[in-house]
Structures are given as C-alpha cells and as structure tokens.
C-alpha cells in the first residue's frame, strides 16, 4: 500500500508535465502550446531588463483578468498559478493571485490542489493575513481518507503555517505519528519540527512521541526526528544524555552500511545523516567525560570509514574533527583528527584548504601545537591570491594572537583591511584589530598608531564601541600616571602630524576622536596660548559655532585670521551622528600654522559636506566620483591615506625588519614572529587554553560612564523630547531662550576670517553640482498629502510676530482634518532666526504619523529646504526619509508627514534628523533636531471580545508574569484598569470579579494580551503575546504607570 | 541553516529560487543580481565558498548555470557543496541529461519534488534520497 502512495506522489509531477513534456532529448522538451513554456522562451530571448519588465507586466495584466473572470476553470487557474509563480520568481509582485492560490488549494482536484498549496507556500510568508484562510482547508485535508491529500496538508504545514492557529491542527497531526504509512509519519514529524521552530512551548508535551519517531523502523521517519533532536539538544543537552546510546547505535548502523543502498551518495552511506548525528554527539559529549566515552568508538570508526577521496567524505571528516575537538578529549582521537586537518590544509584543492583552515581555527585554542606544525602552510595562505582564503587565515591568526606576535598579526590584518571594499568585512576586521590592540599592545606608540589606522579605514562604519572604549581608555588612563601622560601626549602629537598632511581625508568618527582627545587634555594649555598668540581664534563651544555659521550669510567679517577649524567640526557635528563625546574645538592646530590649518579645513570640510549630502545620508563612494576639483581628486587622496597608514606601519615595524617576499628565509622569519609564544604552553593544552593574558590596556571601572553621557547630552543641545502622554509641549521654552541669548553673543563675537569664509564658499560650490542632482531627485518624489490640501494658505499681515500664531492655526486646521485621530500637541524641535521646526505625533489607528511643520519666520525666501530623517535600526520610515521643498516663501509654513514603524522593540528612542536650507546664494545652513518616540506611540487598543481573547490566549507561547504592589486607590479594579486604558491604550475586554482582561497590539499587528488580578494590595499581571519580547516591555510600562498613579 | 537556494544563469536570469526566510520581492531581485555578480567575479581556481555579508554563499557552476546556496555559519560548507551536486544529479536522472531550460520549464516539478520542499529525506525518481536539513 505504501508503495502505491509513493508511486502516486512520484507520478504527480509527471502528470503535470504530460501536456507540456514532449519527451525527446532535444533542448526544449516543452510543447509550443504550453503558455509557461512560451513565456519562459520569450523572456530568455529578450536582451534588456526593460523589455522583460514590459513583457511581464503584459503577462501579469492578462493573468489578472483571467483569474478574476468568473468562468475561469480550476484547470485554467492551475495554469495561471504556475505562470504567476514564475513572474513572482523574477521579481514581479503578483499579489492579486494570492487569494486564488488559496481557493485552488481549497477546491481543486488532487493536482490542482497541489499546485494551489505550492503557490501558497511560495507566495505567502508566516505572518501574511491570508494564511489564516488556509487553515480550514488544511484541517479538512488532514482528515481526508485520501492519503495524498493528507500528505499535501502535512507538507504545507511543514513549510508555512500561522503560529496562532497551531492548536487547531496539532491533535490531528499528533495522531498521524501513529499512522501505518511511513510517509505520513515522516511528514507528521516534519510538521511538528516546524511547530517546534516557531512555537516550541506548544509541542513540549509530545516529547515522548518524538522518541518513538527516533526508534521508528523507517529510516526516513528517524532521520526527520533528528532535526527536532538537534535543536532540542542544542538548547538543553543535559535533558537528552540518556539518548546518547541510541544515537551512537544509529550512527554505527549508518557507518556500517546497514541502511538500504538507496541512501548512498557516491557509495557513501547517507552522508548528510551521518553529519547530523555527529553534530548531535558533539553537543551531548561537550564537557561530559562519561557521555564522551560512549562516542569514542563510533567516532574512530567514522574516521576510518571516511577514507575514500571524495568531497562528501571530507565533509564527514570535517564534522568528525569538529566533534572530536568538541567533546571531552581522547588523545588517540585527537591525534587522528590532527592528521586529518593536516591533510586538508596541505591539499592542493582549494575548497579542502578552506575547510582545513576552518578546522584549524576551531581547534587552535586547544592545540596551538597544530598551528606550529602547519606554520609554513599558514604563511603561504596568508599571501594566497584568493581573498577568501586570506581572510580565513587571518581569522586563524586572530585566535592565536598573544603579546609577542600581536604587531605582526595586526599588520597583516591592516594590509588586508586596506584592500577590502566590503563594509561587512571592514566592520568585523576593524573590531578585531581594535580588540587585539587593546589587549596586547606592546607600547603606547604602537597602540596609538594602530588605532589611528583603524579609525582612518573603518571610521565610517565601525561599531561605536570602538571609539568610545578608546576614548575612555585615554581618559581614565592606567595605574601609572606617567605612562598615561605619555600615551595622551603621543596621541595628540600623532593627530597633529596626521592633520598636517595635505589633502588627507579622515572619516568623521576619527575627527571626532581627535577633537575629543584634544579638548580633554589640560596640559595642552601651552599649545593653546601659543596658538592664540599667533592669531588663532579662541575656543568656542559647539552651539556658538553653529550660530556663527548660521549668521555667516548675513554678516561678512573680514578679519585677517580665520577660525580654521570651527566650520569643519560643526559641519561634521551636524551630520546627525552622535560623537562619542561633545565636539570641542581644537585650537592648537591653528596655532601650528594658519596656512596648513586652512588647507586642511578645505579638505576636511569637504569631507564633512560629503557626509551631509549623500543621497541616503552619506555614500562615500559616490561622492568620490562627484569631486572634480584638483583638490578633490579621490585617487590621490586615497593613496595618501594608504600611504599614510603604510607609513605608520612601516615606522612601527622598522625595528622588526619585516619584509614579506617569496623567499623561504623570509617566510621562516615571519613564521618565527607569528608563532612565537605558542609552543611553550601547549603541552598541557588538552583541556583548553586558559587565558591568563590580562588586558594590556585595562579599563578602569566605569566611573566615567556618566561623564560621557553628560557630554553627549550637551551635544544634543537642540533636542527636545516629549512623552506621548504629557501634554506640556513647551516645557523647553527656558532652554530655547537661553539658546537665543547665546546666539546674540555669538553674533557679536563672530570673527570669521575672510580667507576662511572664501574657502568655505569655494568648497560649497564644489559640492553644489552634486547637490542639484540630489534635489532634482528629491523633487520627483510625490508631494506630501498636506501640500495637496493647500496647507500653506495662511499669510498673516505681521509675519515676524504672528508666525507662531500662523503655525498654531495651521496646526489646528491640520488637526481638524485628522480630528478622528488622537494626537500630541505641537512641539518645537529646533529654531533659529530664520525658521522653526515643530512636530506633532498623530496616533492613527494603523500607524504613527509624524507631522513636521517648517515655519519660515524671515522675510526672505528659503531655498532648497531639505528635511532628512536619519535612519536607524529602530525605526522604519515608510516614505522616503528625506524631503525637499525647492522654495519656502517668506513667512510661510510647510508641512511634511512621515509614517513611522517600529523595527526593533525599545522603550524610548530618539528619532533624529536635520533641516538644511539656503538663503539666496549663501552656504547651506543646517539645523538638527530630534524627537523621542516611545513604545507607547506604537501601541493601540485591540478591540476583541472575551471569546476571542480566550482563543488567542491559548495560542500564544510567550508569557510573562509579575506581581506588583498597588496603591489603595487602585485596589478598586475598574479604576486600575481605567488607568491602563488611558495611559497605555489597552482595550478593556472584560471585568470578571477581581480579574480584568485587556488587549492591545503593537503596530502593525503584534497582539499582546494582559490578564490582571487584584488581590490584597497586589496585582498579578500576566502577559501573553506572539512576540517573545513585547510582554517584558509592556510589563515595564505597566509598572511605571501603576507607580505613577 | 539554509537561507535560500538559487539557480541563476550567467546573464543574471533567475531560473529557480527558493527562499526559506521571508525576503521582500524587490529585495530578492537585488540580492540575486548581487549574488550572481559576486560568483561571476570568481575564477575556477578560487574557493567555492564566499563570505557574503553576514552569511555564506556556496556555489557550483554547471555550464552557464550557477547554483548558489545561502547558508549561515552553522552549516558544513562541503556538505552543502555536495548537496548541490546531489540535487543536480537527481535532476539529471529525472530529465535524462538535464539542461538549464529543463529547470525553468519544469519549475513546478522541481518545486514539487526534490529538495525544494522542507524535506530532510525525500525519495525521488525512485532512487535517490536526499537527506539534508532545510531549516
């Protein structure tokens, strides 16, 4: 019987192909009449993407008409589905067909049903709402007497199934574990594996049945259960130790060739099954001598049997080696595994070499001797033409770095770094170099030089922890005061010399580090005094400089000496990226030489501008192309940068006299420097190397954390925030006033040199070409909703005085429009003499809408007004995050709106952005702002009935319980619930006695349920949700509001 | 874990794609174009495993057709490499000398059976067993 089932299943695709397959061995074995065939053929014949798009759009249009037509037969529908699958595979969405795929699965005969299911599994994703419509069909098919239908239902469940509906099918699938047909049992196990992946809690109770599946007489069922076991054992190895014997027996049988020959692949018995079992044994035997003991024999046998020279045996050997080095060590096996690794590493086959390096990287910490054995091969790999091999080698070296070989290894890493273009590689490598430098640095100079190289290359992309740690290290110092001083002094000196190099471009982070370091050092007073003597401008705080910059347009001050650094710093400071600390002005640079200072400013400033005006924030590569002036030749700059880093490396390594050449002697020397300090301790390394090396540059305790934070907050000077629930929009008034005061002082003090200003203008105009491009691109984007609704109708007679009133009324009209939505008050975000930006949150039912109002307070036209939101991982802006108004007339107001979605859960996070504009032909002026969004901005009530609540409650796997104290007033349950309803926007579903149930959802559609029971001054909160972290976040919010009220 | 399975020809036309993690359609096209560009840039002497962003690509070339599998760091590269070949052998048996167009024409068939399902062990064409974890 089971054979019949199998045959039927196997024949299905054949049946399908019957009408298209012509049989012969010629190239297209598809009849001309097949529509799919002709579609594919015509697409293959096309030469351009554009033509393809046209063709597919036509195809989609005709398909759309066909599937919607009432007289379309299921047979035709099936054919349409296949073509839709093809179109979608080529990247053209065909969402109109999704519902028909579900219908086909529901109504079709066997083959049509299968195609329907297939289309569903390809079209929809786990959280797609249409998927719920499939549940009934699946339930029906699971109960069918036709085994093929049961198989199909089980298959779709193992591919895609809505998590919340698992309870509806779980009992049916459990039953299938006892089915007489092995194919059904196997598919049932696969379906349960799927459930285990998406909702492990719900299948906990069937663990006993999994054991039965493991011992099933059918190999397929057993193999399917291994996937579940691998996962469960990974999570909790101790719970399955008793199964070690079973796994060992199975592996023995597989290795011994006891399985049907059908399972062989190139005469190796079930290789992938072996790999799976080896992994399980590795997990079970880790740190457990007794369990490991059981596996030694079979591992030995696996090694022995896998001697055939075929790729698949190498894969098995690799897994064996991995397992042998994972479990409790046995010397004989280790020796064999080591020999195996040696064979891999020495192999001329490149893929095998890679595998060998990977294995070596894994075992090296336990057995550094092995690295010594293969040191020459490793060095050869270091100069391998394939960058992938090189990188794997560096990964290996990274693991064996110690205080003696650190400089050579870091040098190799830096060399690689300079050749890499890919951001991911740079980020990871830069992180590793910084870590090694901090851990093992042989001296101050080396440390600073290495970090300089790190910042130069990776400054734009590196993890922000790197500069933060580095700065903290510099600030806190070590135990030796003297050494601290030296380190700092050296750092400053190196920065000065770097800045003196003409035309050098440095990433913004690096500049921030430099300037931070500078400002924190009091012993530089001498430099400062000298600088002042030579005519440099005195230090000015960040905001003041900003004001100066803003006023540049109006006041032209012709003074002999420029403030050589201010503009650079403020422009880099304005890019919206937070510096690790407040940016402070370095005055000693100008002290050194006004002229070099000014030239640097040119190139540095361009660097800043470059960041500002990249299309999506900044795009260094594109910008390089845009630079067309002699000062901006990108290649020249790059090479100076590289040279410059090279110089540092050269300097660093002069003493070590290290030149890599092909000569063996050189390699030997390199080997001796690389592998120094590895052998000595290796004799007792079987139990894993104990890491006795303490961090060379050890950080002191985190006293300075708070200090850092303080500085950061002053940097964000024009950042206002409002909680979604507070209705005090102008609480920042005081702050703004003081800001205005400072601005006045700033104007008076303004001492911008003509030289500098000119250069500033020059550099602006250089970037302008590119900007124009940018803007034209921007203006193509669809106008905002509010523009259509003519929101700028207001033109009050006394503009300067009434701009605020204007704004208010504008808002009120805006709010009138959105009356049905709850909204926050209008909050002013940033402000200068020309314009003001305010914002308002509108908590629409289906999204959070941020409305930005830009008020031009002046009597001048603002041109090229550009509003850009900085993208972060926490938020997703549904529209284009930037927006450009070519012109904002005098005393008028514009508004922009953005739909914001939460990407990553958080309690409170800042969304920042900036506005940039021009007045007449003056340089761009930029204002930064940020607005705090809270989790609650994205929470909406979920209006469901008690019954639905009950169903949902049972289907959610993630729950969090907590008892909290409540005040007397809250002991009144309805009152407490009311608080939650008002403050957290939870929907009160029902109140029964002293228990209340509430429901809400996180936009777009992550539900969370709350059960609250009040009892003797305590409230028991119980959250359940389909999202694992949401309950925790909500719990925190609940506690907060309960405490407050 | 396998993230996706692709068959793309040298011209960059996708012949077969299967994603085991949801990716938006427009991002798929971008990814596919980038993946094939990366594969084409590699010579025969270079290794068939590529570290690509935060995952790895394992690829094999059959005439003008590339088969590329995206995996995360838990996989055994060589096992996946051979798995690709096993897949091709199975196709070859089924079509008796498989060609690139066969794959496209019988896209449905390829989906219906063989490795494209989330099926660790699949009997197919009566003879071959593919036992590979798909997720």
Automatic annotation (TrEMBL), chain A:
Provide the transmembrane region boundaries.
Answer: none
InterPro entries named among the record's database cross-references:
Adaptor_Complx_Large_Subunit, AP4_complex_esu, AP4E1_C, ARM-like, ARM-type_fold, Clathrin/coatomer_adapt-like_N
Kindly give the membrane topology term recorded for this protein: Peripheral membrane protein
Q: Does the keyword ATP-binding apply?
A: no
- Would I find Protein transport among this entry's keywords? yes
UniProt record, GO biological process: intracellular protein transport; vesicle-mediated transport
Q: Where is the AP-4 complex subunit epsilon-1 C-terminal domain?
A: 940-1043
Query: What's the superkingdom here?
Result: Eukaryota
Q: Which UniProt key words apply to this protein?
A: Golgi apparatus, Membrane, Protein transport, Transport
Q: Primary place of residence? A: membrane
Give me the stretches of Polar residues compositional bias.
Answer: 584-602
Q: Which family does it belong to?
A: Belongs to the adaptor complexes large subunit family.
Q: What does this protein do?
A: Component of the adaptor protein complex 4 (AP-4). Adaptor protein complexes are vesicle coat components involved both in vesicle formation and cargo selection. They control the vesicular transport of proteins in different trafficking pathways. AP-4 forms a non clathrin-associated coat on vesicles departing the trans-Golgi network (TGN) and may be involved in the targeting of proteins from the trans-Golgi network (TGN) to the endosomal-lysosomal system.
Matching PANTHER family, A to Z? ADAPTIN, ALPHA/GAMMA/EPSILON (PTHR22780)
Share what the entry says about its subunit structure, partners included. Adaptor protein complex 4 (AP-4) is a heterotetramer composed of two large adaptins, a medium adaptin and a small adaptin.
The protein's name:
AP-4 complex subunit epsilon
Automatic annotation (TrEMBL), chain B:
Q: Where in the cell is it found?
A: Endomembrane system
Coiled-coil annotated residue ranges, if any: none
The entry's keywords: Membrane, Protein transport, Transport
Q: Which GO terms describe its biological process?
A: protein transport
Entry superkingdom: Eukaryota
Q: Where is the AP complex mu/sigma subunit domain?
A: 1-107
One of its Pfam families is Clat_adaptor_s
Q: Which GO terms describe its cellular component?
A: cytoplasm; endomembrane system
Can you tell me which family this protein belongs to?
Belongs to the adaptor complexes small subunit family.
Could you tell me what this protein is called?
Answer: AP-4 complex subunit sigma-1
């Amino acid at each position: 019987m089971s054979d019949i089932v199998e045959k039927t299943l196997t024949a299905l695709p054949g049946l399908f192909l019957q009408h298209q397959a012509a049989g012969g061995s010629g190239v297209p074995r598809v009849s001309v009449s097949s529509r799919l065939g002709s579609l594919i053929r015509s697409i293959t014949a096309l030469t351009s993407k554009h033509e393809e798009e046209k063709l597919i759009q036509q195809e989609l249009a005709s398909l759309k008409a066909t599937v919607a037509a009432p007289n379309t037969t299921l047979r035709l529908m099936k054919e349409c589905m296949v073509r839709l699958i093809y179109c979608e595979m080529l990247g053209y969405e065909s969402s109109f067909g999704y519902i028909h795929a579900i219908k086909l699965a529901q109504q079709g005969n066997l083959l049509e049903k299968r195609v329907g299911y297939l289309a569903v599994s390809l079209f929809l994703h786990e959280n797609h709402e249409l998927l719920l419509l499939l549940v009934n069909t699946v339930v029906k098919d699971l109960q069918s007497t036709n085994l093929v239908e049961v198989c199909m239902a089980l298959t779709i469940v193992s591919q895609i199934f809505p998590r919340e509906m698992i309870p509806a099918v779980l009992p049916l699938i459990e039953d299938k574990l006892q089915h007489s047909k092995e194919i059904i049992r196997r598919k049932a196990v696969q379906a349960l594996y799927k459930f285990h992946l998406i909702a492990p809690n719900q299948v906990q109770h069937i663990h006993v049945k999994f054991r039965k599946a493991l011992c099933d007489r059918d190999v397929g069922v057993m193999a399917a259960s291994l996937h579940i076991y691998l996962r469960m054992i990974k999570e909790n190895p101790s719970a399955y130790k008793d199964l070690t014997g079973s796994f060992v027996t199975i592996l023995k049988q597989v290795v011994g060739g006891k399985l049907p020959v059908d399972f062989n692949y190139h005469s190796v018995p079930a290789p992938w099954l072996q790999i799976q079992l080896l992994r399980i044994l590795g997990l079970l035997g880790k740190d457990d001598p007794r369990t490991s003991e059981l596996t030694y024999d079979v591992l030995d046998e696996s090694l022995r049997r896998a001697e055939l020279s075929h790729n698949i045996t190498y894969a098995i050997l690799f897994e064996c080696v991995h397992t042998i080095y994972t479990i409790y060590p046995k010397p004989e096996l280790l020796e064999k595994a080591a020999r195996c690794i040696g064979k891999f590493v020495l192999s001329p086959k490149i893929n095998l070499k890679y595998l060998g390096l990977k294995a070596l990287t894994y075992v090296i910490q336990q057995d550094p001797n092995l690295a010594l054995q293969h040191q020459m091969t490793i060095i050869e790999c270091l100069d391998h033409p394939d960058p992938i091999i090189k990188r794997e080698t560096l990964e290996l070296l990274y693991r064996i770095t110690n205080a003696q070989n650190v400089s050579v290894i870091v040098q190799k890493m830096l060399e690689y770094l300079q050749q890499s273009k890919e951001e991911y590689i740079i980020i990871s490598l830069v992180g590793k170099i910084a870590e090694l430098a901090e851990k093992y640095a042989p001296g101050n100079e080396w440390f600073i030089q290495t970090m300089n190289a790190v910042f130069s290359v990776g400054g734009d992309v590196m993890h922000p922890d790197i500069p933060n740690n580095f700065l903290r290290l510099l600030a806190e110092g070590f135990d030796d005061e003297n050494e601290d001083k030296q380190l700092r002094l050296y750092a400053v000196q190196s920065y000065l010399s770097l800045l003196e190099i003409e035309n050098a471009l440095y990433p913004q982070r690096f500049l921030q580090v430099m300037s931070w370091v500078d400002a924190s050092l009091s012993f530089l007073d001498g430099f400062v005094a000298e600088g002042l003597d030579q005519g440099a401008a005195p230090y000015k705080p960040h905001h003041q400089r900003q004001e100066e910059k803003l006023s540049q347009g109006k006041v032209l001050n012709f003074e002999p000496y420029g403030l050589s650094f201010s503009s650079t710093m403020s422009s880099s400071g304005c890019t919206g990226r937070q510096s690790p600390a407040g940016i402070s002005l370095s005055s000693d640079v100008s002290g050194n030489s006004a002229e070099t200072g000014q030239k640097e400013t040119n190139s540095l400033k361009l660097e800043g501008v470059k960041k500002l005006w990249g299309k999506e924030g900044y795009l260094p590569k594109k910008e390089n192309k845009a630079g067309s002036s002699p000062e901006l030749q990108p290649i020249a700059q790059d090479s100076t940068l590289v040279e410059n880093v090279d110089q540092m490396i050269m300097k660093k390594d002069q003493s070590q006299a290290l030149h890599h050449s092909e000569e063996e002697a050189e390699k030997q020397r390199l080997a001796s420097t690389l592998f120094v300090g590895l052998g000595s301790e290796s004799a007792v390394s079987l139990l894993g190397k104990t890491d006795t090396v303490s961090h060379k540059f050890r950080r002191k305790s985190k006293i300075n954390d708070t200090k850092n934070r303080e500085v950061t907050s002053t940097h964000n000077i024009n950042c206002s925030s409002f909680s979604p629930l507070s209705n005090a929009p102008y609480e920042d008034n005081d702050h703004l006033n003081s800001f205005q005061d400072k601005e006045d002082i700033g104007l008076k003090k303004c001492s911008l040199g003509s030289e500098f200003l000119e250069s500033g203008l020059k550099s602006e105009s250089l970037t302008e070409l590119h900007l124009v491009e940018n803007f034209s691109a921007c203006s193509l984007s669809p106008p905002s909703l509010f523009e259509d609704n003519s929101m700028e109708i207001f033109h009050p007679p006394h503009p300067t005085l009434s701009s605020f009133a204007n704004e208010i009324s504008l808002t009120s009209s805006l709010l009138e429009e959105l009356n049905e939505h709850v909204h926050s008050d209008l909050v002013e975000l940033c402000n200068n003499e020309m314009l003001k930006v305010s914002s308002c949150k509108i908590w629409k039912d289906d999204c959070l809408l941020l409305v930005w109002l830009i008020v031009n307070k002046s009597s001048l036209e603002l041109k090229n007004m550009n509003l850009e939101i900085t993208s972060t991982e926490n938020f997703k802006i549904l529209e284009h995050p930037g927006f450009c108004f070519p012109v904002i007339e005098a005393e008028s107001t514009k508004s922009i709106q953005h739909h914001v979605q939460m990407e990553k859960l958080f309690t409170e996070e800042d969304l920042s952005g900036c506005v940039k504009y021009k007045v007449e032909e003056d340089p761009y002026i930029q204002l930064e702002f940020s607005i705090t969004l809270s989790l609650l901005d994205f929470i909406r009530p979920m209006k469901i009935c008690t019954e639905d609540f009950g169903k949902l409650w049972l289907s959610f796997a993630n729950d969090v319980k907590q008892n909290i104290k409540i005040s007397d007033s809250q002991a009144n349950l309805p009152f407490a619930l009311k608080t939650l309803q008002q403050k957290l926007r939870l929907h009160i579903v029902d109140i029964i006695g002293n228990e209340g149930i509430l429901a809400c959802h996180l936009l777009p559609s992550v539900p969370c349920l709350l059960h609250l029971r009040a009892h003797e001054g305590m409230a028991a909160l119980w959250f359940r949700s389909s999202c694992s972290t949401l309950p925790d976040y909500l719990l925190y919010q609940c506690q907060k509001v309960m405490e407050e009220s | 874990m396998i993230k996706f399975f692709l068959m793309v020809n040298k011209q960059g036309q996708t012949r077969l794609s299967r994603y085991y993690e949801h990716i938006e359609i427009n991002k798929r096209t971008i990814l596919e174009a980038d993946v094939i560009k990366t594969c084409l840039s590699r010579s025969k002497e270079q290794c068939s495993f590529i570290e690509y962003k935060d995952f790895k690509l394992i690829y094999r070339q059959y005439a003008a057709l590339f088969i590329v599998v995206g995996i995360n760091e838990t996989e055994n590269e060589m096992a996946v490499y051979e798995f690709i070949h096993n897949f091709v052998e199975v196709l070859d048996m089924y079509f008796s000398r498989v060609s690139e167009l066969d794959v496209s024409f019988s896209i449905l068939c390829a989906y219906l059976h063989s490795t494209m399902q989330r099926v660790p062990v699949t009997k197919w064409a009566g003879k071959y067993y593919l036992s590979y974890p798909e997720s």
